[in-house]
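Please go through the sequence line and token line underneath and see whether the fold suits the sequence. See right below:
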Amino acid sequence: MIMKKRPEKQTADHGYTDVVIVGGGASALAAAIEIRMSDPGISVTILEKNPAPARKIRATGNGRCNITNTAAAGYLDILKFFTRIGLVTRAYENGLVYPYSESAADVADLLISRALELGADIMTDAEVSYVRLSESAQQQGPDAGCSFRFETGFRGGRIRSSYVILACGGKAGPMFGTTGDGYRIARELGHSVVTPVPVLTSVECREWDQSHVPCAVNLAGTRARGVITLTGRSPQNSETELFREAGEIQFTRSGISGICVFNMTRFMRLDRAKGETLPDFTVRADLYPDGEIRAFLRDRRDNAFPGEEISDVLRTVLKDNIASYVIETASVSCGLDPSKKVSKLTDSEIEAIGDAVHCMSFTPERLKGWKEAQATSGGVDMKEIDPDTCGSRFVEGLYITGELADRDFQCGGFNLSNAWITGLAAAESILSEAGR
């Protein structure tokens, strides 16, 4: 597979193309393919700063590429697109949709080969330094004979076009080239940017500090089914529930992780200008959501075997290190003796153990950074983008797709669905306008 590359020091004017797409990821390739399939007369150039496009696609879904979800907006349109380009998919009962081969590399290779076969020009090692409105918007393009709106400068030269699609992603996964370049370009074109923050990532918590009593470090490496709840403080200083989801909770060396935790981070937005910080949130885990531990303990108290200890009872419900942490937490809150026999438990001690099991509390201090995050929350303000076409409300002919816009979704193929569907929406809008 051959793609055009431009020497780093070359500063040639590459003339005119109808559509310039900045970025070579999911939404970029979907847009390029859709345009060329529908109207081969429209020229398309993709400018990708990496040595090869689709690097992030290859890593999605742990290398399996969770293409979409049956519950995602535009799901049927996404499947129709992939069917047209020859990809066979399979959907699972949980809604996740994968390529039948379950190979992300197959998806990336197919997208690149289709774009090239259809005549899209893919320039790699072409980092974009600016996109600006042409000084002479009425000047005729040398090839197409129509007026152009933009001049795009990139490492290797510059190019003029009638349309620009900014598809350069957010900041999550900088090892794949998503380092937030598009925010600067969008600002220079008059757009505002909601502060980007990493989401779908792990949370580091205060309870893992060695000075904290009890210290949660010994929970590291344990997984437990449960329900995660996030609360925040209202202006009246009352707690408000912001998020709740059941799933597998993973305890790490510094905090909590797992899909339900990842999804929770999307709701941990704060306004630093108002002095808001992450510790203003509280995370609670119910580790026995299918029952009531207090009732179970009261029953065991009444029917205890001689010598039966609290740890003996809890370890029939919780894993050993979680049970130990629950007992330590109850010891701090009510002075519970860890070696106390079940038959001697008081009502207040049972309440304290119940609180530790059903409302295990954690104070978030940090979100894992961009390298670990799966998505970006924040980006170009959606009030400035037409949600149906992804077109800029400020600049005619400019489109903003994928993760560059302030749109983020839960785990399960929803963010990649957004990339495909916004790329296709921009393509359809360009096709409609260019066909006038």
